[in-house]
Amino acid sequence: MYEKKIPKDLSCGLNIAIEVIGGKWKANLLANINKGMKRPSELHKSIPQASARVLNQQLSELEFHGIITKKIYNVIPPKSEYSLTPGGESLLEVLYAMKNWGEGYKETFHKIIEY
Fold first, then answer.
1. In what residue span(s) does the HTH hxlR-type domain sit (predicted)?
2. Does the pLDDT of residue 115 top 60, yes or no?
3. Among 4, 22, 58, 93, whose Cα sits 20 to 30 Å from the Cα of 28?
4. Does residue 24 contact residue 54 with C-beta atoms inside 8 Å?
């Protein structure tokens, strides 16, 4: 099995938070699940620029970390729904704080990245 040359330092809470929510689409997925989008098809439609494979991978990681749960219904055609766990709900405050910071920093950021 592959092992990283420099292991992740997971003794720091900030590193753990980044490990859990770090991912291009994870914040969007969590916000959309919180808004009521529960089905995988709804989540995929809400982020059309992301591939289904990447979204499924990030949903699996969020589920693995205990941030969301996946309920599978025994029906035909198959149906599943995602929901936030208490840990996921506790992350919302952090995500909204990050969003507010980003909104306040947006103008400066755009000036910096202009060539």
1. 12-110
2. no
3. 4
4. yes
